[in-house]
């Protein structure tokens, strides 16, 4: 429509960055997407080039505007959702990153996490930040860069270096260095942010010896952070008015806004989040407490079970093992596999929730000379559903509330085999989100609400679509047998330790 206005969502995930235009009905008009390279300098290390992230972001923005012949002034505002925890440090004066972005999955900071654990700080850190000490979070990554780049600590102390998660880096770039800020959800993934007091925690900054000067200002998720300054928008200054970590954005995009509502986003990793309402609860069973969103002067919390390897296991079948040519064919391959009890435990970068074992490595168990490519593909896909069940079981045990609904989104949710198996192994009807892009939609909702594009959440509720439901078909005996064997496979994998 001629006078239609749009919200642009920039979703910077681990695998790719995309810019998507949504209209007032929350309908995707078009998108542009580019892959982001991952660099693996050593086993277990995962890095990316922050300049590539920015250049590709800029390029998908221009591309989607060009493709849809959209004049920039028709973009009412921009929302950003991003892979969380991934850490960039750059020089304030030159704007140049001083090291690659250390990606959330990376294990190069395991030793720093270990040292912090040895200081007996686990309880304090959990009560303050909601997190479990792990190299997953930004604090250890900042420390590592300050330790490994010549002169970095001194420059950080003199205020010459800035830290940001990817949202902050993109915001800084979009505003041509005018705004250095983040939102409460991203701040809550650094292990430096007090989620009760909603401020950077000086005690934790001291523990990690990180100067406060390098940290961004923390705002609500739905908030006008600043305005675009670059040529991409041909001089039109568009507000950037929504920011959330991608998992929180997807919770918002699903409108899972009432306590107990749960979603699973199957992207590079898989992240299950249950809304806790406006009071934090702290887990005894290995779940994280995280900020779900901050809006209209209030902050809401969630339990999260973070699974490090999901879509990236499927990617591994293609890129490393070269067992498959295209990922979309994996559902049919799995459906034609035999019933051998093969298990893949994809602990490529340790195991996240509820195990939190940084040093375990992955395994393939139960193979015979009847095991072929299809069986390995099937076991890999099944491992994602088993890991999800591990987390859901923990959530129901922790909250003593049975799961009554689960919405699934993210790239891997396109896989019908996995969706059917997920319903079976949980013994629960699950919904595949009407859009696999609820992350981007959530960022768009947050951005649109801040500028009055949508009046309130009720208005958004009216445009939300329902997705396809998958019902469980598996017998109880089969379900129990499979899950029991999975647990055995995890235990066996955890006991393997390489002798040096
Ligand atoms: N049909 C499919 N079956 C299984 N995995 C898939 C399928 N399509 C995409 N994927 C996986 O989804 C992941 C990308 O999902 P996406 O939500 O875009 O991730 P991210 O936000 O982490 O970049 C990739 O790891 C890819 O392997
Ligand atoms: O890239 P994704 O979508 O799997 O998300 C990564 C998470 O935000 C990491 O915590």
From TrEMBL:
Positions bound to ADP: 14, 18, 268, 311, 411, 415
Pfam families membership: FGGY_C, FGGY_N
Superkingdom of origin organism: Bacteria
Top enzyme category: transferase
UniProt keyword annotation of Transferase present: yes
Ranges where the Carbohydrate kinase FGGY N-terminal domain occurs: 6-253
UniProt-annotated binding residues for ATP: 14-16, 268, 311, 315, 411
Molecular function GO labels: ATP binding; glycerol kinase activity
Domain Carbohydrate kinase FGGY C-terminal: residue ranges: 264-450
Protein's pathway: Polyol metabolism; glycerol degradation via glycerol kinase pathway; sn-glycerol 3-phosphate from glycerol: step 1/1
Subunit structure: Homotetramer and homodimer (in equilibrium).
Name of the protein in question: Glycerol kinase
Species this protein is from: Fructilactobacillus sanfranciscensis (strain TMW 1.1304) (Lactobacillus sanfranciscensis)
Name of the encoding gene: glpK
């Amino acid at each position: 429509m001629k006078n239609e206005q749009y919200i642009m969502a920039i979703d910077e995930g681990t695998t790719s960055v995309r810019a998507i235009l949504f209209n007032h009905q929350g309908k995707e008009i078009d998108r542009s997407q580019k892959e982001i390279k991952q660099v693996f300098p050593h086993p277990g290390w995962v890095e990316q080039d922050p300049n590539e992230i920015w250049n590709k972001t800029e390029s998908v923005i221009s591309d989607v505007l060009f493709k849809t012949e959209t004049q920039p002034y028709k973009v009412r505002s921009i929302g950003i959702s991003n892979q969380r925890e991934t850490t960039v440090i750059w020089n304030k004066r030159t704007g140049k990153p001083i090291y690659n972005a250390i990606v959330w999955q990376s294990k190069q900071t395991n030793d720093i996490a270990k040292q912090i654990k040895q200081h007996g700080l686990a309880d304090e850190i959990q009560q303050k930040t909601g997190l479990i000490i792990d190299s997953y979070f930004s604090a250890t990554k900042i420390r590592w860069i300050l330790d490994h780049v010549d002169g970095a600590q001194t420059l950080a102390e003199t205020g010459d270096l800035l830290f940001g998660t990817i949202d902050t880096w993109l915001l800084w770039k979009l505003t041509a260095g005018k705004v250095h800020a983040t939102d409460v959800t991203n701040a809550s993934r650094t292990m430096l942010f007090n989620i009760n007091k909603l401020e950077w925690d000086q005690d934790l900054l001291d523990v990690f010896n990180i100067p406060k000067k390098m940290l961004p200002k923390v705002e609500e998720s739905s908030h006008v952070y600043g305005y675009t300054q670059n040529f991409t928008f041909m001089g039109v200054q568009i507000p950037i008015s929504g920011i959330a970590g991608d998992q929180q954005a997807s919770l918002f995009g699903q409108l899972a806004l009432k306590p107990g509502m749960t979603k699973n986003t199957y992207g590079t990793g898989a992240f299950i989040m249950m809304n806790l309402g406006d009071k934090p609860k702290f887990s005894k069973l290995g779940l994280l407490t995280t900020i779900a969103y901050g809006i209209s002067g209030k902050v809401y919390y969630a339990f999260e079970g973070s699974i490090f390897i999901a879509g990236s296991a499927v990617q591994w079948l293609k890129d490393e093992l070269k067992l498959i040519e295209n990922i979309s064919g994996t559902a049919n391959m799995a459906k034609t596999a035999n019933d051998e009890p093969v298990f893949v435990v994809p602990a490529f970068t340790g195991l996240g929730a509820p195990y939190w074992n940084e040093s375990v490595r992955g395994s393939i168990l139960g193979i015979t000379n009847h095991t072929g490519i299809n069986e390995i593909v099937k076991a890999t896909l099944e491992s994602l559903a088993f890991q999800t069940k591990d987390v859901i079981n923990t959530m129901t045990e922790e909250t003593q509330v049975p799961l009554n609904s689960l919405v699934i989104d993210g790239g891997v949710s396109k896989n019908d085999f996995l969706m059917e198996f997920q319903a079976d192994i949980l013994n629960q009807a699950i919904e595949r989100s009407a859009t696999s892009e609820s992350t981007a939609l959530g960022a768009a909702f947050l951005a649109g609400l801040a500028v009055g594009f949508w009046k309130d959440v009720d208005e958004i509720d009216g445009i939300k679509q329902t997705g396809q439901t998958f019902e469980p078909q598996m017998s109880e005996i089969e379900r129990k047998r499979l899950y029991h064997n999975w647990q055995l496979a995890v235990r066996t994998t955890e006991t393997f330790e390489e002798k040096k």
